[in-house]
Design a protein that fits this description.
The complex is a heterotrimer of chains A (222), B (275) and C (213).
Chain A: H1 6-10, H2 12-46, H3 49-64, H4 67-77, H5 87-112, H6 116-124, H7 129-159, H8 171-182, H9 185-221
Helix pairs in contact in A: 2-3, 2-5, 2-7, 2-8, 3-5, 4-5, 5-7, 6-7, 7-9, 8-9
Chain B: H1 2-25, H2 28-35, E1 37-42, E2 51-53, E3 56-58, H3 60-72, E4 75-80, H4 83-91, E5 97-103, H5 106-111, E6 113-114, E7 119-120, E8 123-128, E9 144-148, H6 152-162, E10 169-173, H7 176-185, E11 190-194, H8 195-204, E12 209-212, E13 221-226, H9 233-248, H10 251-260
Helix pairs in contact in B: 2-9, 3-9
Chain C: H1 3-39, H2 43-58, H3 61-71, H4 81-106, H5 110-118, H6 123-153, H7 165-176, H8 179-207
Helix pairs in contact in C: 1-2, 1-4, 1-6, 1-7, 1-8, 2-4, 3-4, 4-6, 5-6, 6-8, 7-8
The chains are: A mainly alpha (222), B alpha/beta (275), C mainly alpha (213).
């Protein structure tokens, strides 16, 4: 096997475009997923059975089936029920909804880990529900939900590779197409490994930074 | 103690070297015959060559390799992989050769060693059943046509598109299965793929798909794939001989009729492919 | 879609279940070592663990599997498909599980350990009897989550030659040209498997002692 770096340099503009699409979709889907996931978690906690049950049902389906199958059915099955989306919107929507299901569970277990006494105390001193969420639940659970949230962001990044099956021109599709055109299998594998690794490292560093900052803040309060 | 360790280490190294040498002393053909089995890598989602029919791996390749096995006096051991893993697996020595088959092209011949053709690979259009806007290949001008990414069919479609008054809107898919799904979903007007493949698709799903005849562009052929190294040369020569013998006595034509509904007039070799 | 096709999908799902289960168990054992190394406070242990986690979390599983299956033979190690699949999946989940465990240990309230030591626990006892159980309790939901993620990620082992549920669905889609029906059925099978895992996880979680307030 010959390792030919030129294959990569010749195709650099296309590869960078693919990486750009991957990064944009990743960031958008992670922020969107965390946002909607938080809404779902709050809805399930305070919305009563009528909200909790159907939302729980949707979350179970989204978490219980592979993203590959969800996105395939959304994109190729959608037109049969009048939902004909273009590849990028379909990918973004699928990925956000998928992420939201997981984030809602992360936030739910975060809520559950907060001592009931803290909430009761807050209610006693007259805080409203919104205030309790903002002032008690969110800050207290941040430490607990931060590591799984970063994990989830990493998982979302890797799921973006699946969007190649609905022809989203992201990194994996771009690089593997170049790889098989030029028979540069090894080169393209290493390139993919390197770029994804760098992105995951960046996300992990940010997560750790946030964790240290927050724990310092927490201890200065006590 | 230390001397003993050293001796043992050397002995192990010698043993390892010895086995490596003896493994390379014979060529691939001798190893296949000694093992009594030929390992063939393929993707089992390439009907009618390789596919899962009622739970069993079936298709033209299965029949052809069964006969090759008889000629060589070995059994066939199939390794099923997704296509993106097949050629890298061949290069890593995970199997002796690849079924596939793949369109014989100039670029691929530089990298791989092809067997004599087993079928025609000339490209035609698959459209939605009852679509009257496409009745001949030229009608795809200006329309969205799906094709597999990094395939020989893509190269042929692109070349054909250049000859049309308005270019074809070429849409690349990671695999042909997805392009058929998008044709059914209505995002594209047709799929360009080799005639044997789309003829099979249309025969399986008569209500959904239909083939546009005749094929377009220049003739091309499907062959099985091996590596070019000297170690595998005797094996590939033996495979070639077995295939040509099957072609000569009519067995290959019979199998083509069974799987494609018609036999092809294929050359014994493709020294100078059109693409 | 015929019953026969559904049966084929069910059979292939046995690979999905078997490979995932073995990998999660092996991965958990490795994760304990990794999180221990990271919390040891010694660079000699924590640095390699950090690199391990970074690599296996950062590099896509598909690439890891191809490296194990196709590049190890180049240096003379020829691994069979099933071994490559289990090794790849175990190492990958170990990295994620280690990160979860670390988070769990970090969020055990400091006061609990201090009070344990005040009532006469040695640091070792406080670690074993207080910190470990609480950390495991805190990270149990994350473990169930990870199990479900791995069950789904196991679809990637097809690239080393294992015909598991997703690959069988793709093969059948490529043979029958009924991709929507087949993918929906495969999705249903994944859903049932994962619901069972989630329910079992929920039952176990409820039977575990509550978190001390």
């Amino acid at each position: 096997m010959i390792f030919d770096v030129n294959v990569i340099f010749d195709q650099l503009p296309a590869i960078l475009r693919g990486a750009g699409v991957t990064i944009l979709l990743w960031i958008a889907a992670t922020i969107g997923g965390a946002f909607f996931g938080f809404l779902v978690a709050v809805g399930r906690r305070y919305g009563g059975r009528l909200v909790n049950l159907p939302l729980g049902f949707c979350v179970e389906i989204l978490r219980g089936t592979p993203f590959l199958i969800q996105i395939f059915l959304l994109y190729y099955g959608g037109p049969f029920i009048g939902l004909a989306l273009d590849p990028v919107p379909a990918g973004l929507m699928g990925l956000t909804v998928y992420g939201a299901a997981y984030y809602s569970e992360i936030f739910r277990s975060g809520f559950a880990a907060i001592p009931v006494g803290h909430i009761e105390a807050a209610q006693c001193v007259g805080l409203t529900q919104g205030q309790i969420i903002r002032r008690i639940l969110l800050p207290e659970m941040t430490m607990l939900v931060l590591p799984p949230s970063v994990n989830m962001a990493v998982i979302i990044l890797k799921e973006t590779a699946i969007l190649s099956i609905i022809t989203v021109p992201e990194l994996t599709l771009t690089v593997s197409a170049i790889g098989s055109q030029q028979y540069a299998f090894v080169e393209s594998l290493f390139l993919l490994a390197l770029i994804y690794w760098a992105l995951v490292e960046a996300a992990g560093r940010l997560g750790h930074l946030a964790e240290t900052r927050l724990s310092r803040y927490r201890f200065s309060q006590s | 103690m230390r001397a003993g360790f050293l001796v043992r280490g050397l002995a192990t190294a010698a043993l390892l070297l010895g086995t490596t040498f003896s493994a390379h002393a014979e060529d691939a053909l001798a190893r296949v015959k000694a093992a009594g089995s030929l390992k063939v890598g393929t993707e089992t989602a390439f009907a009618p060559f390789d596919f899962i029919d009622a739970g069993e791996h079936a298709g033209l390749n299965v029949d052809v390799f069964a006969e090759i096995g008889k000629e060589l006096g070995v059994t066939i051991e199939w390794v099923a992989l997704p296509w993106e893993g097949v050629l890298p697996g061949l290069e890593a020595g995970k199997f002796d050769m690849v079924a596939g088959p793949a369109t014989i092209t100039k670029a691929r011949m530089e990298r791989y060693r092809f067997t004599p053709p087993v079928a025609e690979a000339t490209v035609a259009i698959l459209k939605k059943a009852g679509d009257t806007t496409i009745t001949k290949p030229e009608d795809i001008a200006g329309k969205a046509i799906g094709v597999g990414k990094a395939t020989a069919q893509l190269a042929q479609l692109t070349a054909y598109s250049e000859t049309l008054p308005t270019k074809v809107d070429v849409r690349e898919y990671p695999a042909f299965t997805e392009s058929y799904a998008d044709l059914a979903a209505g995002r594209i007007a047709g799929v360009a793929n080799s005639l044997p493949n789309i003829a099979f698709v249309a025969s399986q799903r008569k209500d959904t798909f239909e083939v546009v005849l005749p094929p377009f562009g220049q003739k091309s052929y499907f062959g099985f794939i091996g590596t070019k190294d000297a170690d595998h040369a005797p094996l590939m020569v033996a495979i070639d001989a077995a295939l040509l013998k099957m072609k000569g006595d009519g067995r290959l034509a019979e199998m083509q009729k069974k799987w494609f509904g018609a036999s092809f007039d294929t050359p014994d070799s493709v020294p100078d492919p059109a693409f | 879609m015929s019953l026969k096709l559904f049966e084929l999908l069910l059979k292939a799902s046995l690979y999905t279940i078997g490979i995932s289960l073995i990998s999660i168990l092996i991965g958990f054992a490795i994760a304990i070592l990794l999180s221990g190394a990271m919390l040891s406070g010694r660079k000699f242990f924590s640095a390699p663990a950090q690199i391990f986690i970074s690599f296996f979390r950062g590099v896509p599983l598909l690439v890891q599997l191809l490296l194990i299956y196709n590049l190890l033979p180049v240096i003379g190690i020829n691994v069979p498909s099933i071994v490559a699949a289990i090794v790849g999946l175990s190492l990958c989940t170990a990295a994620y599980q280690a990160e979860n465990l670390r988070g769990g240990f970090a969020s055990v309230p400091r006061g609990l350990i201090e009070s344990a030591e005040m009532v006469g626990f040695t640091p070792g006892q406080a670690f074993r009897r207080i910190k470990v159980p609480i950390a495991l309790r805190l990270t149990f939901p994350a473990l169930v989550n990870e199990a479900i993620l791995i069950l789904k990620a196991s679809s990637l082992v097809s690239v080393v030659g294992i015909v598991e549920l997703t690959r069988m669905a793709q093969d059948l889609a490529g043979s029958t040209f009924l991709p929507l029906e087949i993918f929906a059925s495969a999705g249903l099978i994944y859903l049932v498997i994962n619901l069972v895992v989630a329910r079992a996880g929920g039952l176990i979680e409820r039977s575990l002692p509550g978190i001390p307030r």
